[in-house]
Every structure is written in C-alpha cells, then in structure tokens.
Design the sequence.
C-alpha cells in the first residue's frame, strides 16, 4: 500500500507479481475493502490492483470533481507502476471510471465489468442536493442512511456488523472529497457514447438494487456492442458485499473467457501475450440475457454561439428541474427572452473567469435584496447552496445587505432564505 501525491491514487496490490493485472474500482463512500471477499479467488489468476477514491479510506484528501479527472489519476498511478494493459471491474462510481477508460483509453483495457453502474446516475440535481446536505450537516446523515441504499432489508438485519462497517466507512470519508465525487456523478452522462465501448463487457446488477437497478443495467447492455447481463438475485446496490461468492464467480468467468483474441483498436493489434490468460478450470458459463439494441435519440442542432455554454452553466447553478420548467413554458412570445438570458447572463457573464461562482452568488443575492426580487432571491438562495455557500455565509451576505439595502428589504430576504435553507438542507427521511 502507498500514499501518493495529488495526481495519483492510494492503492494496493494482491496476488502474484508476474500475473496479468485486474483492477477493482470502488463506489462512492466505500473503500477498496468492499472487494475483500472476491480477492482470494481472483488472486489465483490475476494480480489484483485496488484503489481508494480521494479522501476515502484514509487516502489523501485531494478532491476530484469529474470522472475524467479520477480516470486520469488512475492512469497516472498505473503509469508510475509500469502497468499498461489490464482488466477492469468497477462498482457504481468505479464503474463510471471503467466506462471512461473504455471510451477514452481503449488501448489500455482488455476487458470490462460494470457492477451496479449506469450511463447516467439519477439526475444532476439529486447529487448536487446531496452535496448541499453534506456541506451543511456533514456526512452523518448520509452515513446513517447508507445501509438502506446499499443492502436489502434482510441482509442489513442479519448482518449488523457489516451494516455498521458501512456506516463508519461513509462517516470517515472526507466531506470535501465526497462532495466533489457527487459533482462528478452529477456531470456524468455517456448515454450517447455507449456504442463506442469496444471492450467485452459484463454488466452485473443486484435484482433488488434501487439505486442503479436492472433497468439501468439493460440500458448499458442495449448500448454496448459486446455486453452481457448478469442479474444477481437477493442483492441490492453493494452486490459484491451482499453476494460475494456469486459476484466472484461471475468475475472469474468473465475475465477468463471474454478476452481470448488480441485487442484490435482499429489501429494496432497488441500481441497475444498481453491477453488475460484462461485458467485451467474455468467455471461453467452463467446464463445471460440478450438485450436488443435501442435506437439513439436524435441529437439537437448544435448552436454556434454561447447558448450551449450558458445552458450548461444555468443547469449546474439553478438545477435541471427549474431550467426544464422554464424552457418548457417558453413559446413564441417568451422564447427569445429565454434565449437571451441563457446566452448573455449565463453563457457570457457567469462564464467569465474573473470571479468564482461562490462570489457571483454573493453579488447576486445582494442585488436581489436591493431590488426586492423575492422570487428570484429564493431561486438564487438555492443556487448559492449549490455553488458552495453555507447557510452561515448566506446569513452574513444578508446582514451585509441590511446595512446598505435597508432593514425592511433584508427582513423579507431573511424570511425567504430561511425557508429555502430549511428545505434544501434537511436530509430526507
């Protein structure tokens, strides 16, 4: 095990030094120990490489706010160790890293397994809301509800020690790194790119997963040209922990049989020696569902101005639900106005490099107090929380505004902001 600089990841190796490398990627809030029960079997055939996400499992707290950035750090770690070619299995956020590898670095990837993974994890608003809750309340509310998301009720009741381990694993994660990982998942969406995943892929999901369940798994199988589906009965989201033997057997079978020809990237054929070997006695094949491909939706026309940049920033700051509602209500009369504010306010001003988004939120809140625009103040109080302001910092902005904008205006602003903050920072039951 080694602690590494900010551009690499904390890692450990298990298994023979001369064996091909198989990488296991963790999910958000977990550590490499989520794979402990699979390692003894996997190390019979491969040199297993596990890593921790930043700020997880005692890893250095260097936040990474994009899946591409996590992938770059993983590759930098592997490069420093001389590992060029590998198989990869990842769970949830770890699976997103696997898809990123398959799309951007196909020459490195021999075979892929995606566990409890989706091409888009819920909605961006959900993960940014989770970030607001963690920034305000710490990780304890997320930690206490982790077993409900990760395990079936029967397993959690029968395995109190594992349930408590899961709670403590989340609770000891660095909050800033957890928030950054939520941002990474909020921005991750590769639905339109799945057809370019060339690696043989196993998509593995628990039958009772309520986070990234069988529907999301079938979307992956439908989009990835060489993919097979395995549904593990009696398991929820953290299926490697809940059904370790079944997951281990599926991984051994997949990585033993799915890659028996040299990898052709369309440019270079790597030598057969680089291919993961087939163990002498591979387990019997596991039935997999064949899913028919789904036609990709038509893509909207690409604009030539700042509109697309503005729309992206507007969604990140105000939330998909609000922006979708505004655009849905626009018509021939108001459509030009929606285009104007998206392009000018969000694509030009909010995208300028001179101020960060936290500072821009402070300025916006003050201006709205001065103008008495309470409806917009509620909207931008939510935006300020998403941009990283804490409730105490918003309070200070409003106190400052009271001096220069007037006490009556500030009184109304406090009433509106307090209601929004209560709604946004109260964890769901």
Sequence:
């Amino acid at each position: 095990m080694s602690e590494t600089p900010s551009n690499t990841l904390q890692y450990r190796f298990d298994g023979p030094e001369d064996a091909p490398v198989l990488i296991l990627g963790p999910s958000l809030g977990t550590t490499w120990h989520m794979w402990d029960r699979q390692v003894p079997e996997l190390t019979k055939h491969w040199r297993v490489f596990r890593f921790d996400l930043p700020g997880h499992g005692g890893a250095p707290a260097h936040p990474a706010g994009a899946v591409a950035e996590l992938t770059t750090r993983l590759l930098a770690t592997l490069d420093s160790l001389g590992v060029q070619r590998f198989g990869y299995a990842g769970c949830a956020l770890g699976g997103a890293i696997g898809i990123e590898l398959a799309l951007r670095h196909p020459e490195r990837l021999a075979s892929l397994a995606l566990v409890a993974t989706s091409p888009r994890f819920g909605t961006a608003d959900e993960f940014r809301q989770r970030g607001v809750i963690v920034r305000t309340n710490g990780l304890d509310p997320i930690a206490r509800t982790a077993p409900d998301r990760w395990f079936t009720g029967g397993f959690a009741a029968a395995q109190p020690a594992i349930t408590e381990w899961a709670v403590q694993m989340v609770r000891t994660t660095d909050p800033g790194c957890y928030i950054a990982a939520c941002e990474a998942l909020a921005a991750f969406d590769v639905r339109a790119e799945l057809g370019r995943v060339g690696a043989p892929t196993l998509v593995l999901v628990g039958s009772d997963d309520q986070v990234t369940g069988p529907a999301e798994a079938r979307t992956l199988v439908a989009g990835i040209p060489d993919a097979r589906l395995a549904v593990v009965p009696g398991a929820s989201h953290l299926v490697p922990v809940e059904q370790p033997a079944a997951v281990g057997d599926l991984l051994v079978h997949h990585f033993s049989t799915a890659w028996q020809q040299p990898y052709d990237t369309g440019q270079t054929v790597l030598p057969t020696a680089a291919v993961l070997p087939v163990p002498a006695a591979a387990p019997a094949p596991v039935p997999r569902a064949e899913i028919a491909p789904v036609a990709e939706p038509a893509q909207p026309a690409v604009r030539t101005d700042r509109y697309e940049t503005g729309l992206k920033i507007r969604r990140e700051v105000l939330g998909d639900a609000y922006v979708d509602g505004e655009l849905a209500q626009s018509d021939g009369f108001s459509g030009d106005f929606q285009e104007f504010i998206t392009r000018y306010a969000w694509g030009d001003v909010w995208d300028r490099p001179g101020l960060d988004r936290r500072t821009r939120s402070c300025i916006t809140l003050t201006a709205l107090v001065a103008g008495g625009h309470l409806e917009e103040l509620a909207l931008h109080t939510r935006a300020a929380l998403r941009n990283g302001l804490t409730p105490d910092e918003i309070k200070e902005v409003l106190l400052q505004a009271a001096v220069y904008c007037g006490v009556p205006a500030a009184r109304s602003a406090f009433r509106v902001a307090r209601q929004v903050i209560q709604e946004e920072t109260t964890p769901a039951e």
